[in-house]
Structure formats: structure tokens, C-alpha cells
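The protein record quoted in full:

***
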Amino acid sequence: MFKFARPEAFWLMWGLLPLLLVFLWFMIGRKRSLKLIGGKDLLARLAPDIPKRKHQLKFLLVGLAFACFVTALARPQWSLKSEPVKRSGVDLIIALDISNSMLADDVKPTRLDQAKQFVSQLIDKLKGDRVGLIIFAGNAYLQVPLTSDYLATKSLLKTVNPRLAPTQGTAIGEAIGLANTAFVKGEKQYKVLLVISDGENHEGKALEAAQAAADSGVVVHTMGVGSVRGAPIPVMQGGREVDYKRDREGNIIFSKMNEEMLEDVARASKGKFFTLNRPDQAAYNFMSELASMEKKDFEEVVFTDYEDQFQWFLALGLMFLVLEYFLSEGKNRWFSNWKIFKEA
């Protein structure tokens, strides 16, 4: 079993972009400078050792080294040991709203940050339950299938942000439908879905999806994030807040928690509505609800004794840097005299 202990480190891969821009700027400037000297024929006579592809090769080696170092930072781990584990609990899927309105700060630091804190604390309290994670905005995506690997789930939770959603909206109905297909088929109990959202600008068919899930034995609970007074929705560019979302007249739009809709969704599947005021208290309240449910016994294979493998990527990155260092700028005179492809 292979996994990364710190997958959030892969965000550093964006550092390849400025490296690429600097390299392109260098190559364009070099080409212009060579044109000022003369044409191709003149350059071939004046500087026969000017390489054609070595700069690109050197940049490729640096880029590969950078990618290897980032991968090493992500702490790749491998486990060859597995053992069957008997557990007793329920199957819990958490559907987390990552729409832009979740960036509002009427609860601190933001609605999304507080929701992630709650989910992290909730996972810490789970014992024997399997957990899955769905993220949704305009569409819903299964981020983590049902698993007992709480550490991996929390690691992926750290990377969740609105940029993962290509379309905006609040597709609660689609998230419920996706969760319904992710549970074990045939069972009529032990299945719980927790939808965490501000409930604003939700797409249609949420109530119908909740009723269909209830028919399959899924209890849908909802947890509202935000406040009834609302807050403006920040517009982010390059990780910075540059403005607030505005209507066509230029007025700032305020986002408010749609408590009534979230209550209706929970009621449609005989679930409960919770309010996320404090992550620790909300986790305690929800765990009390889970404790009252009937548990199922199941056995699954769990991988243990993960060992770090970052040293291999670190060594590979150093090897690429060494190759780049010893790769000369000019043509290699030793090999330039070889006439391998020249006819006798």
C-alpha cells in the first residue's frame, strides 16, 4: 500500500511555473543576442561549439530534480504489512460544501476553515466507524471512499479548497445522490450521511435526493455553517482577497446560511439538523447522535507499519542536479569527432 503522509506539499509543484518563465525569458534573450552577431552560417563558423539542445536538457534536469524534491517533501510511504481487523461501527460519509460562499468570514476564520476543523475533530473521535469524504460545489466528487484509514482522510482534508471545484453552485442533491451510490448496496441501516453547507444558492432536487437516500436506508443529517446575518463573499486572485462578489448594479452580495432548507433536507430522511458554532462542541453533539445508532460488525484488511521512502526521491533529485552540473554549456569535443552516421 502506497500513500503520501503530506500530500499538501504537492502545491509546491506550482514553483515549476516561474522556473519555466525564467527559462523562456533566458532563451528568448539568448536568441536575440545571437541574431545581432550574424546569421546561422556566420555563427557556425565563428562559434562551432554553440549547443542546440543542451540548454533545454539542463532545464529539464533541474525541473526533474525540483519535482523529486517536492515528492520527497510529501513523504511517500510504503507498507507491505497488512492484517485483518474486526470493527464495530457505522458507515459515515461527510459531504463538504466547497463553494465560494464558504469563504465568507461571518464565522472565524472562514466557514470552510471552521467546517474543516470540525471534520478533523470528528474523525479524531471515530472508533470503529468507516468514513468517506465528498466535496461539492456546482458538482459533487467522491474524494475518499469509505475507509478506516483516518490519517489518510485527514491528510486529504487539508488540501480541500474552492479551487478544486471547476463549477460553482451548491449541488446538495447531487452530493446526496453520489453518497447513496458510495454506500454498501443491499444494507438498509448503518449508513449515515452528514452534509456540511451554508445551504445558499443550492441546486434543485435536494429534498428528492434525501428522500431517495432514506428509502435506501441512509440517514441524512445536515450541519449549517455561517450566520443568518451573513457576510460578503471574497473574490480571490493568486491566494489574495482583492474584492467582494457584487451584483450587476455593483452592490456587495451578502451570503446567509439557509437554515430552513438544511432543516428540510434533514427532515426528509429522518435526520437531524445541527449548527456549527464551535467545532469541538459540534463534534461532541454529532458523536452523541452516532452513539445512539445500531452498529454493525465488519472485518477489513488494514495496512500497518508504513515506512518512509522519501530518501529514494531525494537521491534521484540529487542525481539530476549532479548530471546538470557536469553537463557542459558547449558541445562535447570528445564526442563531436565521432562520425557514426556519416557514410564511408
